Each structure stands twice: as structure tokens, then as C-alpha cells.
């Protein structure tokens, strides 16, 4: 099991290879946004990695971040809990003005990951 620490919420044991967006929402009980349903299109699930940033990235995440000119953040929908990690949830439902956090992300990374 990986240890997920969400700044301001605590540290949680998370099953290996669970999507980070789901771990943040389900295990840490943080109201993270995922407007596109976890498909690497909207960037609302973005997090800042505080410690132990994974070195691999999906092609979809890389393309999405580059297209929007975002640096210093990662898309939690495109990351797996396959190591200990500390993150800051910077895109939350509370105060967003949205009617809901978005469609439920699938259990597996979508689109299918092409790891870079």
C-alpha cells in the first residue's frame, strides 16, 4: 500500500495502483474537482506535488498541461498511487461555483496511459 498525504487532511493508506484522483476523493475525503470525468481534458483535478513526485507521466497529461501552459502541477486523474506521495489539492469543489465536481472517474486511467 502507498501512503498518500494530502496537505491539511492527513496521511492515508491507499491500495497500490489506485488512481490518485479517486484516492484523494474516496480515501482522503477531499472534494477535488474532475469536471471531465478524469479524462485528461479539463485540468480541474490538478494537484501540486509537495514531496515524492513520480517521474513518469502519461502522454495525455503532458499534452494537456502543455496546451494550457501549466507548470508546477500534475493531473491527479493521470496518476497512480504506486509510491508514497504528498500533494496539495488546489482545485476543489467547495467555492468553485460548479453544480457538482464532475462525472465519476473510472477505476482505470483514461485514456489508456502511454507512459512517458
What does this structure look like?
The protein has helices at residues 20-27, 59-68; strands spanning 2-6, 10-14, 18-19, 46-51, 74-75, 80-81, 85-89. By secondary structure, the chain is of the alpha+beta class. It has a single domain, classed as Roll (Ubiquitin-like (UB roll)), CATH 3.10.20.30. It has a 5-stranded mixed β-sheet with strand order 2-1-7-4-5, with helices on one face. A two-stranded antiparallel sheet has the order 3-6. A hairpin with a 3-residue loop joins strand 1 and strand 2.
What's the structural blueprint in terms of helices and strands?
Elements lengths: L1 E5 L3 E5 L3 E2 H8 L18 E6 L7 H10 L5 E2 L4 E2 L3 E5 L27
Parallel strand pairs: 1-7
Antiparallel strand pairs: 1-2, 3-6, 4-5, 4-7
Task: State the separation between the terminal residues, measured CA to CA.
Answer: 24 Å
Q: How big a fraction of the residues is strand?
A: 15-25%
The average pLDDT is: 97
**Rough outline:** globular
- The tally of helices reads 2
Quote the CATH topology: Ubiquitin-like (UB roll)
Q: Given this structure, which CATH class is correct?
A: Alpha Beta
Order of helices and strands: EEEHEHEEE
Give a short synopsis of this structure.
The protein is α+β, with helices and mostly antiparallel strands. The protein has helices spanning 20-27, 59-68; strands spanning 2-6, 10-14, 18-19, 46-51, 74-75, 80-81, 85-89.
